[in-house]
Amino acid sequence: MNETTRTDELLEMARKHLIRFHPVEKEGPIIARGLGSKVWDVEGNEYIDFVSGQISATIGHNHPRIVEAMVRAGEKMIHSSKWLLQEESILFAERMARHLPESLTKMIFKNSGTEANEAALHMAKMHTGNWEVVSIDRSFFGNTAQSRSNTFVLGHRGLGKGNAYGPQMPGSYALPIPYCFRCPLRLKFPSCEFACAELGFELFDSQSNGYPAAVIAEPLMSAAGIIEPPPGYFELLRKKADERGMKVIYDESQTAFGRIGTMFAFENHVAPDFLVLAKAMGGGAALSCMATSAEIEQDAFEKGWTGGSTHSNDPLVCAMGMAVLEVVQEERLPEQALEKGSFLVEQFRSMADRFEQIGDIRGRGLLLGIEFVTDRDTRAPADELGKKFSQACLERGLIISIIRMPGLNSVCRMAPPLTIGQEEMDRALAIMEDALVEVTGARPGSAG
C-alpha cells in the first residue's frame, strides 16, 4: 500500500481550494523554497530554475541583498497612504532616473506589469485626447480590461461562444507579428521591407475612427515565443506613430534590468514615450513601474489623471527594488547576461547539429528560445515534442517554460537568473541533452 506523501496532501487541498487559471491540470511538484538558481519541492527534490520563477527572480531566489532590504524596510514601514509622499519611493525614483533618458524621468510604482500597462495606456489616452490603441499580434500585456484588449492571443480573449470574456475595449487593433521564422505574409526579410508593419498600419487607417492614441509593444516578445523584430522595425514603428500623433509605449516587463545584455531593451532602438517595467524590477516582489516625460505627466496632472491605487509607491517593495538595481549595477549583470547567453546559444547550436528537431534558436542575453519542428524544410511546429521535452526536463530536475499558447507549444523559453553559475548551466545543458535523447529517440551524440 502506497503511503500518502506531503505532495499528495497539498494537491488534495489545492484541488479543493485554489482557482485554476490555466486549462492545464497541475500535478506537482509543489515548491517549498528557493535560493539562487535553485528551488526545492516539499519532498526535498532539487531543481535548477531556468525561468527565474515567473521570469522575476532576476538576481536569484532570495538574494541576500533583497532579503536584507525587505527586513530593514519592513521594520520601518510596509505600507503608506498613497495620498502622502514617502521616502523609499522618492529615493528609488531618483536612482532609477539616473539610468533613463530625460524623456522618462517621471514615474509611478505599481504592483504588476498589467497595472503599469493600464497606467500608461490611460495616461496616453488622456494626453492625446484619443482612445484607439495599436499592438502587435501575439503580444501579451496582461489580463485587465485594456491590457487584455490589446493582447491578441487565442485564449486570453476567449475561445468562442460559451467561454469568452465578452466585448473587448473599443479601439483595439493588431499589427501582423514580425515573426521572421514564420512570416505571416510568407515573405523574407529584408526584401519584405517591413511589410507586416506597413500593411498593419494601412489596415489600422482603414478601420480607425480618427482617434489614434498609442502604440504598445514589447521590444522582445517573450510570451509570443521569444520573437525579436528585425533591425529597423522599431524605428519604423516610431515613425508611423508620430505621423498619426500616437504615443509609443514599450512593455519591458521581461527585458529590462540587464536580462538581454543591456539595462533596457530600448537602448537598442529608440526611446518610447512611456516605459513599463515589472517582474525583474522587484527581484520576485510584486513591483512595477510606469515612466514617462515631465511634459506628459504635467499635462495629465492638469487634466486630473487618477492612476494611483492603494499600493502605489509602497515603501517595502520600493526598498527591494532599490536592492535589485544596486546588485545589477555592482555585479555588472547585463555584461554577465551577454556572456552567459552567448555560451548557452553556442551549446544549443551544437545540440542542433545532433537533433534535427531543433528548428530555430533565438533571443538575446538570458532570454532565449528554442523552437522545435517536425521537419526543418517545412518548419512544421512540433507541439507534442515541446510538451514532452518540458516534462522530461522537469522529471530530471530542470524547470523550463514551454509557451502555452495554441500553436506555440513547440517553443521552449529560457530565462535563468542572471547570477546563475557555470556548474548549474552545465548541469542544465546535460539534462536537456538527455531529455532530447528520450523524446526524439535519437542516440546520444548522434545526428537527429
> How many discrete structural domains?
2
Anisotropy-based shape: globular
Alpha plus pi helix count: 13
CATH structural class of the largest domain: Alpha Beta
Major sheet characteristics: 7 strands, mixed
Q: What is the CATH topology assignment of the largest domain?
A: Aspartate Aminotransferase, domain 2
Radius of gyration: 22 Å
How would you characterize the overall build of this protein?
This protein has 448 residues and is an alpha/beta fold. The protein has 2 domains: 6-59 and 332-440, Alpha-Beta Complex (Aspartate Aminotransferase, domain 1); 64-330, 3-Layer(aba) Sandwich (Aspartate Aminotransferase, domain 2). The chain has 13 helices and 16 strands. The protein has helices at 6-17, 52-55, 64-76, 87-97, 113-128, 145-149, 195-207, 233-243, 294-302, 315-330, 333-354, 383-395, 422-440; strands spanning 31-35, 38-41, 46-49, 106-110, 132-136, 172-175, 212-217, 247-251, 274-277, 288-292, 358-364, 367-375, 380-381, 398-399, 401-402, 411-414. The strands form 3 sheets. It has a 7-stranded mixed beta sheet with strand order 4-10-9-8-7-5-6, with helices on both faces. Strand 7 (212-217), helix 8 and strand 8 form a beta-alpha-beta unit. Helix 3 runs antiparallel to helix 10 and helix 12 crosses helix 13 (422-440). The longest helix is centred in the last third of the chain and has 22 residues, at 333-354. It is globular. It starts with 5 loop residues before the first helix and ends in an 8-residue tail after the last helix.
